[in-house]
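Final report, results section. Input specification for complex C-07:
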Amino acid sequence: MDEILGVFFHEASEKLDEMEAGLMTLEQGGDDQETLNAIFRAAHTIKGSAGVVEMTAIEEFTHVLENLLDRLREGKLQANGDMISVILSACDHIRALLACIASPQSDLEAALAHEGAQLVDSMRAWIDQEGGQNTAQDGEAQASVDARPFGNTGTVEGVSSNPCWHISVRFGRDTFRHGMDPAAFLQRLSECGRLRNVATLADTMPLAEEMDPESCYLGYEIDLEADVEPVTQANLEQVFQFVQDECALCILPPHSPLSEYAALMASLPESLARLTEIFGQSGALTPCASAASLLDNILLETAAGTLTKTVENGPSSSGGATVPGSRIVAAKERTGQDTRLVRVPAEKLDSLIDLVGELVIAGSSAQLLARQSGDGLLTEAMALLSRLLEEVRDASLQLRMVTVGETFKRFQRVVRDTARETGKQIDLELRGGETELDKSVVEKLADPLLHLVRNAIDHGIETAETRLARGKPVTGRVTLNAYHDTGCVVIEVADDGGGLNVERIRAKAVERGLIDTNATLGENDIYNLIFEPGFSTAEQVSNLSGRGVGMDVVKKSILALRGTIDVHSSPGQGTRFVLRLPLTLAMIDGFLVSVGGGAYVIPLDSVVECLELKEGEALGNVLNLRGQPLPFLALRDLFEIGGAAPLRQNVVVVQAGGQRAGIVVDQLQGEYHTVIKPLGNLFRHLRGLAGSSIMGSGDVALIIDVPSLIQLATLAEHDQNAGSTRHRLENERLAATSNP
Amino acid sequence: MSTTALAQRYADLAAGDANQYLTFTSRGEMFAIGILNVKEIIEFGSVTEIPMTPPFIRGVINLRGTVVPVIDLSVRFGSDHTETQRRTCIVILEVREGDEIQDLGIIVDSVSEVLDIPPGEIEPPPSFGARIRTDFIAGMGKVGGRFVVILDIRHVLSVEEMAALAGIAQGSSSEIIEADAT
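Structure output:
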C-alpha cells in the first residue's frame, strides 16, 4: 500500500505542478481550450487517484474544484484573476492535505479542514452563480444540460421510465494495449446487479484495411438493474477506475430526467437514429414519442452553442458515424506523451554512472597494456572499445542533466503571488531555460533562487508611483537568465528597480557593528555586506522578506554547491545577482598536471595556455606575459607539497570569472577526460579542490577548483602580509587535535 | 530445520554479531570496534594526500572506484602519525551520521582478532586515565583479565567534527563559526 501511496503522492504533486503552470498561462491571456482541458484533466486525475487510494478528503475537495474547472472548460464561466487565485489556493490546499496525510498533525488537520471549507464555499459560489437553478449533480454530461437556455418544453422535461441504471461507455483506443479487456468490465458490472440490456457499439470501427487490430473501437450502452444492495454512482464509477482516464463514461441513475438522456445522446459519436433505436430497446425512451422532441431539443441546444460537441452527423446521416469522442483523442495524446518518458530512481542512475566511470577507467588501463604489448590488432580493437566506452559514458552522464527551465517556470507563480501581495506590477522574463545542469544542483538551487526573486520584487522593484516619478514603465521587470560560461553554469537574477543604496547599506552595517564608521570600502565591498548574517536594509519588515535571514542563507547555500554569488548594481537601473555554479558530477574535460608525486586535474575550460617558467622572468609572484602582468601561484607552496622543485617548471595560465592567473606545476601531462568523484562530506569545507578522479593506474588525482584556488591564494597572501597567519593556523591546529 | 527454527538461528547469529568486536593495535595499544561497523580490511596501499587538511586526515584511497577518506587513528588520538610497516592495514568502516552513511578508512598498526565480549563484561569508561578523549570510548571490555578500550566510532570518526577541523586547518573564519553552530 505504501508503494501505491508513494506513486500517488508523486503523481499528485506533478499534476498540481501542471495545473499551476496551466493557470499561469491562463492568467497571462493564454485562454485557449487546450490549457483549460489540461488543467481539468490534471484535477480529474488527482480526484481519480485519490479515490483509488481512498483519500476521501482530497477526493471530495478536488471534486468541487473539478466542477468549477468543468464550468470554465465549457465556457460557462469566464476565468478572472480572483478565480485563478482561488484555484491556485485550492492547489495549495491539496498540497497541504497531501503533506498532512504524509505526516499527520492533528492541529494542522483542523486548520486545513477550515481552510478547505472556505475554499469550497467560494468555489461553490461561482459554480452556482453560473447555472441559475443548478441541480448540483455529478457527472459530466449533464453539466451541459444545466446551462440549457432553451428546451423547457415537452417530453424532455419529463423523467425516463427506465428503472435501470444506464451506463454509456466508449473505450479508448489504447484499452487493449494497456492490458484491459472490456469484457472484464462487463463481468464486474454484472457483480453489481443484473445486466438487462447490453448494446455493443462498434460503429467507430474503420474499414478492414484501415483497422488496427490492437486498437479498441468498442463502446457499450448498458442497462443495469441494481440488486437489493443499493448501488451508488461511485460504485459504478469505481468499476471503470482503471480506464477512467481514457474512456468516455456516463452513468445515469434510474429514472433520470429525459434531458440528461438527451445530453448523453448528443455527446455520443454515433448517429442519433441508431442511438434512439438502442435507447428505445432499453426502455429508456419510447422511440416514437420522444425521439422527435429530443431531436428538436438537441438541435436547439446546438444552435445556442451550449454543447461543446458537434452533432452534425446526428440527425442527417443515418449511416455509421465515425467522429470519435474528443476526450478519447485527448486521452490518446496524453498516453503517447507518457511513453516517451521513463521514470527511473536517481540511485539507479547514480550507480549506472559509477559503473560506467569505472568501465572507462578499466578500459583506459587495458588500452595502455594493449599499446605496450605491441600487438597492432589488439591496439586497434582496444581503441575502438575505448571510443565506444567514452560515448557510453557521455550518454549516461547526459541522463542526469535537466534543464533549468522547469525550475524557472515555477517562479511564475512566485512572482505572481509576490506581486499581488506587494501591489506591484511585475513581468517575469525567463531566458536560457534550456541550459542544462545536474539534477542534484537544480534541486538545491530552487530555494536560494526563490529568496533572490522575492527580494528583487519586494526590495528591488519600486512602487508604481516611484517608478512613474522616475520615468520608468509602471510594470517592473524581473529577469532570470541562465547560460554556460567557462565550465560553469551562470544564473542571473536581475531587476530593473532602484538598485542598491550604498549609503543605506553602509549606515546599516555601521549600526549593526559589521563595519567601522571610518572604514574605507569600495562599492563592491559595500554591496557584499548584504550577504552578512543578520543584515537587512528593509525599513519595513514585511511578510515577504526583511527578516534578515535570506541573503546570508542564500550565500551559504550557493557556497555549499561550490558556487559563488556576486551582486552588481547601478543606482536607478537595477540590481543583478550573478550565481556561478559548477557542473558537478558532469564529466570533466581536464588538463592533467603533476606536482611532486601527486596528480592534479585543471578543468580544461579554464585553461588558456601553458608556458615554461623561466628563471628571472618573474617579479615576486607576477609574471610578464606578453607585456601583461600575470599573477601566479605555486601549487607546491600552496598545497605544502614536500620535495624540491624540478629545474624546469611550467605555468598553466587559467581564467576564471574575468580574472587570469598562472598555476605553477612540475610537469604537464596533457588532456584528460574523466568522471568527478566527490570527495565527500569530510572535505566539504575544503576550498581549492572540486573533487577527485581515479586515473587509469588506480591512483587518485585531485581536481582543482580554479576560482576558489585563486581566491585562496589571494587570501593567503593577504594573511601573509598581515604576518601571523602561519602561527595562528599552527596554534589552532594544535588546539583542535590535542587531547583535552 | 523448520523455518521458525531457522529464523531463530539467524536472530541468534545477528545478536551474536552485535557482541563481536574486532581488535587491533594502534601506537602499541589494543583497541576494539564493533564488528557490525567493519566493512572490510585491506592492505595499506597508495594513499593520495589531500592538501590543506589537518594531519589526522591521511588522504584518500581508491576503493574499487569509490574515493574513501583515510584517517590516521594515532594522530586523531593525539600521537605521531602511524609509520607504515609490514602489517599496517586500513580498516574500512561504515559510519552513520544522521541519515548519511559514509565509508571511512582508519590506519592501524595491525589487526588482531575478532572477540566475543558479552554486554555483562563491558564496564563504563573511566572519567580519565585512558589517554584518549573519554567520548571516544564506548566502554571497557574485559578480555582474559585485561581491559580493552572499545571505541565509539560515532565520536572517533564524527564526520561533522572532522570536517569542521578540516575547515579550521584551512583557516577560514566563517567556517569556524558555522562549525561551532552545528
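The helical segments of chain B are 3-18, 73-76, 153-156, 159-169, 173-181. Residues 3-18 of chain B form the longest helix (16 residues). This concludes the modelling results for the funded period.
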